Amino acid sequence: VSSEVGSDSSAQLAEEMNIVTMIAAVIIVLVLLFTSGSYAGIPVLIMTFGAAAILNKGTNFMLGTISFISDSVTVVLQLALAIDYAIILIHRYTEEHEHLPTREACITALSKAIPEISSSSLTTISGLGALAFMQFKIGADLAIVLIKAILLSLLSVFTLMPGLIMLFSNAIEKTKHRNFVPKISAVGRFA
Prior knowledge:
Number of strands: 0
Low-confidence stretches: none
Number of helices: 6
Structural class: mainly alpha
Mean pLDDT: 84
Radius of gyration: 19 Å
Strand content: under 5%
Order of helices and strands: HHHHHH
């Protein structure tokens, strides 16, 4: 009876995490549509995240077994991190492309974004490393899977994304749009 209850709760958790992942994906795409400078940059961001997520899921076998919770939660957390790193790089590219050709802008953007993204990821990795010292085994399990997710996200952003930017550069240029984010300079000055 207890294995049936465990099986039912695992199935329910899987179903709920799939719903959470879908809701998070829709919200992220809507936010990217609202905040991006170009519509063609969105597929670049999504493909970069998708590659990182597939790599992470695919490399979990090297750990032997991981908890169901770690497997379920990782995708949502990795989504936020990988998209964040990718946004930093694409914004750097956009800034550099204003005065440099595509290839040089991509190289310069990458060289400027690597220290920013790396320092951000080290902070996150440090916090996740603390999970490994929990008394419960799930802490170490989560820490390993999430740290691996961050490292694979970095790999995707630093290697795959520059190629995608080069591939989509004409489309990124053609689908530029005005900034939909309202100016809140008064709030900024007050803060």
